[in-house]
C-alpha cells in the first residue's frame, strides 16, 4: 500500500526493540509490533520438523516475531536445538537475522544467518516472496544481515541439530592477553561438526570493580579472584562449554581435562561446573542489570590487530577511565570461512576476526561520558588504521555507510532499488534517508 502512495509512509518492524539507537523506529511512519503476529498464528508460530533418519537435517519453521528462547524450548521437546545462539535468547528471530546473530558457537556453525534454509519476506514493494539459496536467492542473501532494508521477515526456516541435555561449563582465568587470544584461536581451529572439541568458546574481560561476572564463580573463590584482578587490573576469562548427555557422562571429565591440557591460563584458576543445556544457553541473563539502561559498542576486529585493541582500548581507555561499575566486555574470535560473502553483513577481510562487544551501564548521569568514550574507541581504531567493521552499526552519514559496506555497497544499493525503491523500510537504520 505504502509503495503506491505518492508520498510513501515509512515502516519499521519492531521485534523485541532491543536496539539502542532507534533502529526499530520510524519517525512519522508506522512501527509494526511484530509480537502481535503470534496471535494470528493459531499455535503455528513455531513448528518443529524432526528428521528421524538424520536429526542434523531437522528444522524449525518459525515466525519472524518469535523469540529464540521459545524456539529453543520447542526444539528441545523433540531432542533438538538451533545450532548457533546469541548471548541473549530474548531477541526476535527477525531482529537477529537482519544483523547476523553471533555467539559462542559461531566458530563451529557460523552466525545465525548461516543457519537459515528459507525466508518469507514482505518487500518494500509489498510482495510476499519465498526465498532461499536456490529460489529468489538475491532477496534471500540480501535480507540476511541486511538491516531490514529489503523486506520484513515474516517467517524463517532455521536449521536444527540433535541437542545434548547437559554442559560442562568452564572458566579459565588469564592475566596475559596474548596467551588468552592464542588459546582462543587454537580452540576455534577445531571447528568441524564432528571434531572432538569444545562446543562453545567465548571470552570476557574482568576489569577492576566491574562485578557482574563474579556471579559465575563459587562464592568462596571470589576473594582469590578479586585479588588476581587487583594485581593485574584486567583479567581475561576464557569461557568454554562441552555438551554431553547420559550416554557420554562417564568420559566427560577425562575429555575436558584432555582438551584443556596445554592451555596457558593462570595455574589453579580453572573452574568447572555442570549445568543443563537450556540454563547454559541462558547463562548471560544472570549477569545483566536489566533495570539499568545500557549502551553498547560492537566491533568486528581483524585478528592481526586484536593486540592493539587490548593495549589501546581495554587498557588505555576502558581500564584507565573506569567509568562504570556495571558492564560486560565480550571478546572472541571467529572464522571467516563460516560466513557466506553473498550475505549483506559487512565483516573484516581476514580469516580470523574478533567480536569486541562493550556493554556498559548508561544511567542518565553517565550517558554522555559513555557516549564520548565509545567515540574515543572508534577514533582510536581510525587513527591506528584498524579496519574494524561495526556490528549493529550506528553510522550516521551516507559516506559512513558506503565505507562500512566497502565492496558490498554497490550491491546493497542496487538491491535496495530493486526491493524497496521508495525507501520505505527500516528508516531507523539511517542508511538511505
Ligand atoms: C542483552 C542483549 C544481548 C545481545 N547479545 C547479542 C549477541 O550475543 N550476538 C548478537 O549477534 N547480537 C546480540 N544482541 C543484539 C541483538 O541481536 C540485536 O539488537 C537484535 O536486533 C535484537 O532483536 P530485536 O528483536 O530486539 O530487534 P529490534 O530492536 O526490534 O529490531 C532491530 C532491527 O531489526 C529490524 N527488524 C526487527 N524484526 C524484523 C523482521 N521480522 N524483519 C525485518 N526486520 C526486522 C528492525 O526494524 C530494526 O531495524 C544482543 C542484544 C541484547 C539486548
TrEMBL record:
Any one GO molecular-function label of the UniProt entry: cytokinin dehydrogenase activity
Cofactor requirements of the protein: FAD
Reactions catalysed according to its record: N(6)-dimethylallyladenine + A + H2O = 3-methyl-2-butenal + adenine + AH2
Classification via SUPFAM superfamilies: FAD-binding/transporter-associated domain-like, FAD-linked oxidases, C-terminal domain
Matches recorded under PROSITE patterns: FAD_PCMH
Keywords: FAD, Flavoprotein, Oxidoreductase
Pfam families per the UniProt record, alphabetical: Cytokin-bind, FAD_binding_4
Domain of life: Eukaryota
Domain FAD-binding PCMH-type: 1-163
EC number: 1.5.99.12
InterPro entries per the UniProt record, alphabetical: Cytok_DH_C_sf, Cytokinin_DH_FAD/cytokin-bd, FAD-bd_PCMH, FAD-bd_PCMH-like_sf, FAD-bd_PCMH_sub1, FAD-bd_PCMH_sub2, FAD-linked_Oxase-like_C, FAD-linked_Oxidoreductases_BP
Family: Belongs to the oxygen-dependent FAD-linked oxidoreductase family.
PANTHER family cross-referenced by the UniProt entry: CYTOKININ DEHYDROGENASE (PTHR13878:SF115), GULONOLACTONE OXIDASE (PTHR13878)
Designated name of the protein: cytokinin dehydrogenase
Taxonomic lineage from the root: Eukaryota, Viridiplantae, Streptophyta, Embryophyta, Tracheophyta
Gene field: CKX3_4
